[in-house]
Design a protein that fits this description.
Blueprint (H helix, E strand, L loop, with lengths): L6 H6 L1 H19 L4 H21 L4 E4 L4 E4 H27 L6 H18 L3 H19 L6 H32 L4 H7 L7 H18 L7 H8 L2 H22 L2 H6 L1 H22 L5 H22 L2 H28 L15 H4 L1 H15 L5 H15 L3 H27 L12 H19 L1 H9 L3
Antiparallel strand pairs: 1-2
């Protein structure tokens, strides 16, 4: 494949160019100087902010780069905003956490930047080969980040489990790509979507789609491909857990949205039914098992499985309402879930304590600011208005009803009611129980800023949801 590359391509994909360039700069600084953790933090944070600004400025334009292998502007820029937001907030939340837990190394920031770069490739890909390259770049960084606390057995276990199961799922994904290519004669996503109606009788195409569902289902932790998520999220450093649960999930759903477009999902009835069942199972299993969790990180892990089901509901809808709902949900989920994991990371002690419901008893007295911020994130995750989580669920459920899947929307609403128990349980513990020991940890200023920004994002896009939805409608 001969792909022409020009300086114009680098400018057109400026967010990706900035992220990759910053990652290389951080790597060089780490190799040439000692004790560069502080410098690398500011370099990476500045690079992510610049990439975010560049993506935001190009969101109303659209185009192609690198011989048509990547999209620029439009939905690609929107996803880049989501990825850079997840990366920047995670970096801000990580600085003091890494120092407290004795794992502050400059390589961490390089890995985050490269993971964001992989996400950008996935979100902007117009070809399955480019998507696969981005997926592997992101996944390799996540394997290392999950095991970054290498002196802690649970972190090593998390990295090993994620690597083994991730490599297994990659095999399904790659084989699916090969079969889809064999059936359609192309790896271009647009051409595959256009040809879907003419190759429905080809078993290679149907089997290829099934394998792609399995591979992508693993990346977003859909039931029954969710087994890795609770152990990995619990064992990984907490800011990394939040980053994987948001940026990684958004990147995989970006490809889900591109490849399983309304034309494909609506035209392949068996595929649509399978996706609907996976969405329902994810909502039911994730929420029901989360009820029994006492560890907050595991609760958020099972919660993320349920949210994957909510988001998939918008794809099953196979209409513009569902697709815009998915885009809105991914942005809302990013800010509220990173915020929730961020509060846990601030309070978590070096020996892994302060991560259970019981240890949060009376937190409103000892840490009123953190208790208030955590309450905002819990209310939003539960889908209580006027927070962003409510409108995320509203749009995907509305899309499902318009697409003829009222039963799936009903399952989602019922499971949202179930989720309210374990989300609001934490709020009740923080405000109405006082028998817990006071958590005597300082609140890092940088982490507090990140949490306040996350809470502000939850409120802003919750109060003004139409601003996001009207923007995303132009992508379809």
């Amino acid at each position: 494949m001969n792909v022409p590359v020009s300086f114009d391509d680098l400018l057109a994909t400026a967010p990706l160019s900035i992220a990759v360039g910053t990652a290389l700069l951080v790597l060089i600084v780490e190799a040439l100087k000692d004790r560069t953790e502080g410098l690398n933090f500011w370099l990476s944070f500045t690079g992510l902010v610049l990439a975010l600004a560049s993506a935001f400025s190009s969101i109303t334009t659209s185009g192609l780069a690198y011989g048509g292998l990547m999209k620029t502007g439009g939905s690609a820029a929107y996803f880049e905003v989501v990825f850079c937001t997840a990366g920047a907030l995670s970096v801000m939340l990580s600085k003091q956490y890494l120092r407290t837990h004795g794992i502050e190394h400059g390589e961490f920031y390089c890995l985050v930047l490269l993971a964001v770069s992989g996400m950008m490739l996935m979100g902007a890909a117009t070809d399955l080969v480019v998507f696969f390259i981005g997926l592997e770049l992101m996944s390799l960084c996540f394997y290392i980040l999950a095991a970054f606390a290498r002196k802690r057995a649970t972190s090593n276990e998390a990295g090993l489990k994620y690597f083994l199961l991730g490599a297994f799922a990659t095999g399904f994904l790659l084989y699916g790509i090969a079969l889809v290519y064999g059936a359609t004669g192309t790896t271009a996503i647009g051409a595959i979507v256009a040809a879907a109606g003419t190759v429905l009788e080809n078993p290679l195409f149907l089997i290829g789609l099934a394998l792609l569902v399995i591979g992508l289902g693993f990346k977003v932790a859909l039931v029954p491909f969710h087994m890795w998520a609770p152990d990995v999220y619990e064992g990984a450093p907490t800011p990394v857990s939040g980053f994987m649960a948001t940026g990684g999930k958004a990147a995989a759903f970006a490809v889900f949205l591109l490849l399983f477009a309304p034309a494909v999902v609506g035209g392949v009835a068996p595929l649509r039914e399978v996706l609907a069942v996976l969405a329902a199972l994810s909502m039911i299993v994730g929420n029901v098992i989360a009820l029994s969790q006492n560890n907050i990180k595991r609760m958020l892990a099972y919660s993320s499985i349920a949210h994957a089901g909510y988001i998939l509901t918008g794809i099953v809808a196979a209409n513009v309402t569902g697709s815009t709902g998915v885009l809105y949900y991914l942005l809302a989920y990013t800010v509220m879930n990173i915020g929730a994991f961020g509060v846990v990371g601030v309070l978590e002690s070096k020996d892994g304590n302060h991560v259970t419901y019981d240890e949060y008893a009376g937190l409103s007295s000892s840490k009123p600011i953190l208790a208030g911020l955590m309450s905002v994130f819990m209310f939003s995750l539960a889908g209580i208005p006027p927070f962003a989580g409510f409108f995320g669920k509203y749009y995907v459920f509305a899309g499902a009803i318009a697409g003829g899947y009222t039963w799936l929307a009903i399952v989602g609403v019922l499971m949202s009611v179930v989720s309210a128990y374990y989300y609001l349980r934490l709020v009740v513990v923080m405000y109405f129980r006082d028998e817990g020991a006071s958590i005597a940890v300082p609140i890092p200023a940088l982490a507090l800023v990140a949490l306040v920004l996350s809470a502000a994002g939850v409120l802003a896009i919750g109060i003004f949801p139409s601003a996001v939805v009207s923007l995303t409608e132009s992508f379809f």
